[in-house]
Each structure stands twice: as C-alpha cells, then as structure tokens.
From TrEMBL:
Catalyzes xyloglucan endohydrolysis (XEH) and/or endotransglycosylation (XET). Cleaves and religates xyloglucan polymers, an essential constituent of the primary cell wall, and thereby participates in cell wall construction of growing tissues. Belongs to the glycosyl hydrolase 16 family. It comes from the Eukaryota. Its main location: secreted. The gene is XTH10. The lineage of its organism: Eukaryota, Viridiplantae, Streptophyta, Embryophyta, Tracheophyta. SUPFAM superfamilies: Concanavalin A-like lectins/glucanases (SSF49899). InterPro entries: Beta-glucanase-like, Beta-glucanase/XTH, ConA-like_dom_sf, XET_C, XTH. Contains at least one intrachain disulfide bond essential for its enzymatic activity. PANTHER family: XYLOGLUCAN ENDOTRANSGLUCOSYLASE/HYDROLASE PROTEIN 8-RELATED. GO terms for biological process: cell wall biogenesis; cell wall organization; xyloglucan metabolic process. It comes from Arabidopsis thaliana (Mouse-ear cress). Keywords: Apoplast, Cell wall, Cell wall biogenesis/degradation, Disulfide bond, Glycosidase, Hydrolase, Membrane, Secreted, Signal, Transferase, Transmembrane, Transmembrane helix. The active site is at E61 (nucleophile), E65 (proton donor). This is Xyloglucan endotransglucosylase/hydrolase.
Length: 249
C-alpha cells in the first residue's frame, strides 16, 4: 500500500510560543485537512502555522500562516509556496468569519496538477504545475505535516509595528479532528505520481476546479484578497514571476 488515510478526533493545544508538532511519516501528494481554532483576543505578533515541508536546503513547502492582530481587528491568513528552495509567493486574505471563535477546516490538496488551499472546502488559492514552462513546482521532495505557534512580532502584524503583549498570555491555539489522505514516501516517486484508486488526488477530475469551486474562488479573490505577489510590481521591479502570467486553472 502506498497511500495513507488517517483521521483523528484528538485535539492538540499549543500554548507556548515556540511550540510545534510534526508527522513522523512524509508524503508525496495527497490531501490534508486540519481543524484549527486560533488565539482569542489580543494575538498581535503571534504566528500560528500549519504547513507541509521537506526540511531540505532547497526545500519545498506549502504554508498556511495565521497572522495575529490587536483585539477587534481581523486575522490575516497568509499562504505561501516554496519550490526548490525559492518562495516569495505570498498571498493574504481576510477570512469571512472569526477563526478564534470555533474550529474551521483548513485543507491542502497537492497533486501532480495543482496545489489548492481551502478553507471549509472553499478554494482560496491555487498554484498550478507549470513545470513544462519552466516554473518550479513541488513534485519530487516528500514533505511532513507540521504545525507551530511562534513569535513573529518582527513582521507579522502591521509590518512589525504591533508587538506581542505578553500580559495577555497564555496564547492558545487548538488543532484537532485532522485527516491525512496521502501517498506515504517509500523512496520511489512512481508510487505517488500515478493515477490509481489509492492515489485519487492525481486523477484528471482533480486537475482543475469544478464550476462551483471556480465561483467560490472568484468570490474570495474579489471580496477577501488583500495581497497578491503577482500584483506587486514594485517588489519585483516590474518583472513578475513567470507563473503570474500563466493560467491558474
């Protein structure tokens, strides 16, 4: 068997900045669902991260990062993709609910065609495999599933202007009811690259969004997107990364 389906109702609580946990096994393609409830109240300067990473010098990584804020201000959800050690692919949105009030499901669908970031099954971001056009894509390095709570006060909230208010601690983020349906790395990419009943995520029907998913994706982009690296001409001296001019789906 080359794939793993695992779910759990167990809840993990991170209450100390610098706390983290990680899967023992690594995976090459699949879908990960994680229920998370974020820090309540004044969370400025904190970063709650849920991601996949290969932990190599030229690492691949797929990130959800929740950037804390002062009490009453919305969280910012930042996503990023590292491919062959290069990142600078940040996007940011405001969520349409309070993520500290209850658990919500944050998902990564990673296959040979695309990476889809989802919130409660709504696609909020796509990163397409344009490898044939010279765009780096995570496709060879197996990754573990990781989560952490850490001190990002140098940059996370208003560019580092709002620091952690330590008097508001402890800072509690809860993780639970997770599901890993992914291809376990056993040293051979052929086990994970193909289409099969086990590797359902690689099937052609998951090579793009459905019609309904496209409508939701456009809604997120129109009403909730606050930063897209592909629109930041100043950052890249008017030479945007190649994938910015290519189709998202």
């Amino acid at each position: 068997m080359s794939s793993l389906y695992f779910s759990a109702l167990r809840t993990y609580v991170l209450i100390i900045l610098g706390a983290s946990f990680s899967s023992i096994q690594t995976f090459l393609f699949g879908q990960i669902d994680m229920k998370i409830k974020l820090i309540r109240g004044s969370s400025q300067g904190t970063v709650v991260a849920y991601y996949m990473s290969s932990d190599q010098p030229n690492r691949d990584e797929i990130d959800f990062e929740f950037l804390g804020n002062v009490n009453g201000q919305p969280y910012i959800l930042q996503t990023n993709v590292y491919a062959e050690g290069l990142d600078n692919r940040e996007e940011r949105i405001h969520l349409w609910f309070d993520p500290a009030k209850d658990f919500h499901t944050y998902s990564i669908l990673w296959n040979i065609h695309q990476i889809v970031f989802m919130v409660d099954q709504i696609p909020i971001r796509l990163y397409r495999n344009h490898g044939e056009k010279g765009v780096a894509y995570p496709r060879l390095q197996p990754m573990s599933v990781q989560a952490s709570l850490w001190n990002g006060e140098s940059w996370a909230t208003r560019g580092g202007h709002d620091k952690i208010d330590w008097s508001k601690g402890p800072f509690v983020a809860s993780f639970g009811d997770y599901k890993i349906d992914a291809c376990i790395w056993i040293g051979n990419t052929s086990f994970c690259n193909g289409e099969s009943t086990e590797n359902w995520w690689n099937k052609n029907e998951f090579s793009s969004l459905t019609r309904v998913q496209k409508r939701w994706f456009k809604w997120v982009r129109k009403y909730h997107l606050i930063y897209d690296y592909c629109q930041d001409y100043g950052r890249f001296n008017n030479k945007l990364p190649k994938e910015c001019s290519l189709p998202k789906y």
